[in-house]
User: What shape does this take?
Amino acid sequence: MRLLLVEDEVKMLAFLRQGLEEQRYAVDTADNGEDGLHWALNFPYDVLILDVMLPGIDGIELCRILRNRRIDTPILMLTARDGVDDRVQGLDSGADDYLVKPFAFRELLARLRALTRRDTPHANAVLIVGDLQLDRVTHTAKRGDKLIELTAKEYELLEFMMLHPNQVLSRTLIAEHLWNYDYTPESNVLDVYIRYLRRKIDDDYENKYIRTLRGTGYQLVDATTA
Assistant: This one.
């Protein structure tokens, strides 16, 4: 899942980015409103996190501009202002939620989960394709009765493929959802993680879930019917 974080406080930006990436989010960042506007207009995100007090275009104005440009991505506003009028202003500008600093990091995560559940049709807690199951709450996977241990990136890859079963997913599409936009198409890191994932969900079984379509990308199919 991809987030854009726009925050001008250097320490806060670094702290939030590290914490979110540890929770399996792919995070792009900007430290001012102009750069945040550029990223939000030119790249797809699942949630935008905007600080209110930004240099240049502030968070409130940035939110208004995005809504006027018909960007309907869920927006979570962060601010040190805790007055009712400030919260109303943020929500009236088009924000979906509002979090007052200082806040507990786990509350931020809970609000992100709520926003993404509200916005996406893929809100099931457990994804099931054939005898493969992925629990999106506990971040655990099973094939049949066998528990599969996944690293953070392997989990992200499997989740994305299970959200799009039987669809042919290009390398670029997968990479854009798993890595920041500094990912280069020439990199073989995606192939490496595909191999890691195959070892865990396919190698011990006759029927395979992951298919390679050379020159195109990858596909996750129901191995129980293959």
Summary: The first helix runs from residue 10 to 22.
